[in-house]
Every structure is written in structure tokens, then in C-alpha cells.
Amino acid sequence: MSRKYSFGFVADPLDRFDREAETSLFLMREIQKRGHFVFVCEPKDLFLKQNELWAFVRRIKLTGDKQRYYRVLKQAPTTLKSLDCLFLRKDPPADISYLHHLYLLTKLEKVVLMINEPSAI
Length: 121
Fold this sequence. Notes:
By secondary structure, the chain is of the alpha/beta class. The chain is built from 2 helices and 7 strands, in the order βαβββββαβ. 17% of the residues lie in helices and 35% in strands.
């Protein structure tokens, strides 16, 4: 296999996902099926450290288990510029918290491939 890539998702809590309809899960499954790494965090996990955007991320593995459909393999503070791609998958409401996390994520727009760039939302 060629190089493994790291894909991050800034999303709502995994436990709130609709397992049958959540498109983020479909993306994660396909990424995992192709042998790459899946990382997730919530907007509340984002923080600045020395003017660099970090997050408390969880590396997960999706399972076939109906009760607990994912397993956390590792969790740690991580600089988000270390990811190869970042999906912005947080559902609105467009309140001040939502706008704040979008503002923080603009720091990565020219550094990491972003799907749903914050400045375009």
C-alpha cells in the first residue's frame, strides 16, 4: 500500500450521529476502507497554542458493532496542520460559537486541504 493519509473531521459529537443517514460516517468508512487514518474532534476541542491551531483529537476506527459503532484508538492534543485533509462537518446553528470555530479554522486554509473551507461558509 502507498502512503497512509490522515483525515480529520470537525463535527458534532459522534454519539449524536444518525448511523443510517450521516454522510460524515460514509466518508469515514470509505477513508478507513482505503487504509487511511480517521481523526475526529468537536469545535469545543479547538484551541490556539503559540498562534497555531490545535485540537484534542481522537483517532477512531469504525466497527461493525451496532451498539458501539466506533472505537477510540488514541486521543491527544494535535496540531491540525499535521493532517493531510480536514472536513468541516459541524451542523449549524450559526451562533457565536459556530462563528468562533470557523474563525479559528481560517488559520489552516492555506496549510491543510480543507473540505468546506470556513471562509466559504
